[in-house]
Batch of 3 targets.
Target 1
Amino acid sequence: MPHPSDDDLFNSSTMTFGEHLEELRTCLIRAAAGLAITVLLGFFVARPVVHLIEQPLRKALGDYYTERAIEQFDAWQPRRAGGAALPYSRSEVIDAVEQHGLSFELRELHADRLARVLGSGTAAVADGDTAGMFDTESLVPVLLWQPLSRDSRVSITTLSAQEAFGIYVKAALMVGVVLASPWIFFQLWTFVAAGLYPHEKKWVWTFLPVSIGLFLAGVLLAFFFVFDFVLDYLLQFNAWLGLDPDPRISEWLGFVLILPIGFGLGFQLPLVMLFLERIGVFDVATYASQWRIAVLVIVIVSAVLTPADPYSMLFLAVPLCLLYFGGLSLCRWFGGNVETAARPRLAAQATKASQ
């Protein structure tokens, strides 16, 4: 397919540096206006969104405390030989937890004292009735049951009156960003297209729908797949340190905002690679020879875009490495680099700046 000569490319480049800035300002204003509209729409659905965001954390906390309770159940031993056994079998406990959605805490009490209090209505035992020593060997295990949804350990707390309003606003903002992402990407690619030559602009309209799809795929991957693994790791780290988590919804919401957006932006990598190859900034040989440096950069960027835990970093870095080689394959599949246009473009811009 024939391409314009260098003279044609020079003559068709009509935008100055100031015109680029003006185009950028226009696109940013349009993107911000679209985001403002979608954020306003987000306020109408922020409440169910907050409940939706809570679910992965509630589930992870429920699994965490249930697992710890079962471990305590398995490790329990009578305080004396021949002492009272647990009132339930392990299979009953598992059935109650998995099939009936119950949680439990293992406690101990003196059965005879409880029966005496319940039978006679006496609130306390007189000192004369005992030797004055607490009898630990007579303690009997009991399991205190309640629906997992009512377990206070699974509840997500706020520590101030205004924090709930901040959560509501953040949820509306998150909805706005997701809903406005097609419009924002459209404005971004419109700005890119304004500075390209005519034979390059066709790639913008090819990349735009794919770019939106990759962004949404990254967001969905983070929300429906990565969160579970990251939460399990973080809670297991709490268990390893012997600390019981008491998460706040505002901190979790900040995590929810950062991770999916980081994944969505990271998933643009193959398109960026292909776009830069199409306009002549890089070529296939460069991508292939510099893959080690690319992997190092991907790991560093993944560490910056994700919270400080190894799971979320790996869950972003590994797909990005695969996407890098996928982008390399795309560049090769498209037949290699087209005529390099970067040098004539730079020369044209330098000439216009001097004029």
Target 2
Amino acid sequence: MKAFNKKLFLEILERYNSGKASREESRYLEAYYNLFEISDDFLADNNEKSIKEAIKLRIDQEIDQYEGRIRSVEAGGRIFKISFLRYAAAAIALMMLSIGTYIILRNGNDPSAQLAVHHELSPGTNKAILTLANGKKIVLDKSANGEIAKQPGISIENTPDGQIVYTVIPSKDSQVKGNDMSSNTISTPKGGQYQVVLSDGTRVWLNSASSISYPTTFSKEERLVELNGEAYFEVAKNKKVPFRVKTNVQIVEVLGTHFNINSYADEPVMKTTLLEGVVKISTGNDQAILAPGQQARVNKSGTHLSVESNINTDKVVAWKNGVFSFENDDLKSVMRQIARWYDVDVVYSGPLPGEKFFGEISRNSNLSEVFKILELNNVHFDVVGKTIRVSGNPSGTAK
């Protein structure tokens, strides 16, 4: 990396103070001042690598101090510790993202920088395919806004903010009975996401590489949908008609509540996390009732169900809010999320670092910005087309 340029830093500071700094320059400057007590002498006497190492050391020291203070605290202290760890990791991640973004901007004439931009991979967007009951497929991100289809008793509208809305059309003939129900499916590719408002008013956020199938109008007995991948549900309340989500190994039943289901085939366990209300999980011969803040975990074969409490629900639904959130996640877990959102393939080479990842990264970041942050944990990334080769950083300690 190039040496830290104090003159450039002061130029940014002058623009910042006069209100003329760009968004990237403001983030760059605020990150330094918010995360570290930096003097002009420190900036002048140290290069960029030294500054990064010093800031990381300072944050590690702060974490150690807080750990020491709470060792004698009972269960409540454990939650505080996790909260602080998340703050510290998110802070250093923000700083590194700010530095990395600005390095790219100010090295515009550097051939290596231009090469990196040339191979840049952008984050995912709102895109999905709607498959109607008759087999017709509609590419939602390429369809005009407004009404895109009609089915018996239903109007389907595509909106500018990446969602489709099912609206019941009042009619004497619009009542649906038994097998007369037609089913639709929304599928998101890798690098896509979408929202749907079902005919009963239930809202569903669909993550990348996922699909949900549902009747255009629900019966009087149940509201049943089928999910592959990950989705967040805000179920419209109807005590008389239970809402059920079916995956390959479980059924989640609710009356009206907010919850998240992660049922990707490449994840080691299926996770259902409750944010509000009550849900019942059924799989094989096991059942469990969840309270808010609890998470049901089912193995891939559906033969074992367990319940975890005190779940960080903000982390679970961070994807819906445009954020990658890591809290004690291993490298492969992190990379599975990245592969889905940036539509890339991941291969691993040699021994990998055993460090855990903490912090948050915007899902709007380009992939190179994400890698700059992750490489703090002694991991290295090589990008060839849409394949990411992951290896231990030779300068770090691989495990």
Target 3
Amino acid sequence: MQRILILGAGTAGTMMANRLVRVLSPAWRVTVVDRDDEHLYQPGLLFIPFGMYRDDELVRPRHRTLDPRVELRLAAIDRIAPDAREVRLVGGEAIPYDFLIIATGSRIVPEATPGLTAAGWRQSAFDFYTLDGADALRGALERFPGGRLVVNVVEMPIKCPVAPLEFLFLAEAFFTQRGMRDKVEVVYATPLEGAFTKPVASAHLGGMLARRGIGVVGDFATAEVDGTRRVLKAYDGREEPYDLLVTIPAHAGAATIAASGMGDGSGWVPTDKYTLAARNHDRVFVLGDATDLPSSKAGAVAHFQADVLIENVVRAIGGRPLAPDFDGHANCFIETGHGKAMLIDFNYTTEPLPGKFPLPGIGPFTLLGESEVNHWGKLAFKWIYWNLLLAGRELPLEHRMTMAGKQVA
């Protein structure tokens, strides 16, 4: 029997495994390897600090999210040996493969920033990119008497690039609803020039932040954190004092990738931006956050990538040329507080534009504009995630971005 081996049972790996067992013949075994049996709904972490979700709504056993035909191996990966076409597990066992899909995701490395995890960690400095961090931050927000709240992105890239903005909007709404908005100064310190990576969206989102009294400190390259003094320091000497720091720590690829010598300096796997084939290794593909692609590290992107990769795996098995069909498509709801959200839709070459989605002129979702419908779409995504997206079901979205419904100036 021939084997497709998938490393990682997160969003990308689970979705891909469930689709592969439906399209491949019984001569192929699909095996997924992950270190534990807990699948986390990562988009829900944003809502934990504000008491909008419970922990148990965000975690399910991995084996329940996978088709029974998928073989799940719970084990720690030591390294990948692409020349031998095998993956070696901690303990010495080796799993051979005919094709390998790397879906090992990304991880936060707060310890990489000097001082961040020293004095004040989980006391005056918190993250919300982990369940433990989001839970701790919920308690800190409930106890916060007022002062200077600084949200800081240490460096790019990060998982879900819009999440820091969403946190800012939700924090503003949270403090307004508690009747203490005038007691809190909210500041966004970012390594980007403005609020977002794309100029039109950055100007639009920056204007929204300004109207809500949220300051933006751009080009802020974080060098270290002085938790004793409660000061965030940049490489250029600037300092941002805080009473409460919400950090989006530096991200890196899985340690396994570095140990295997297959990644760049941050552990991202060099990947063909159109076919999703690993650039330096035969019979290896990369999916989701593990890639080094100039696209968002987000679940929707992994879904669009999977549409392309499922075809390319079938092509590779049949010895046919790969289809260069992934265009960097990203589609993200941005929660903006007060029961509203906005939606952005973009790809490698086209930035977010105003309009209606998915039906031109009808929507029901508004692009680059706030609406209550968008907010309900954001909340509905949790059900879609557990019941359709992970299962690899067909969704009424094209993997290629279209200009239908978009307004071009």
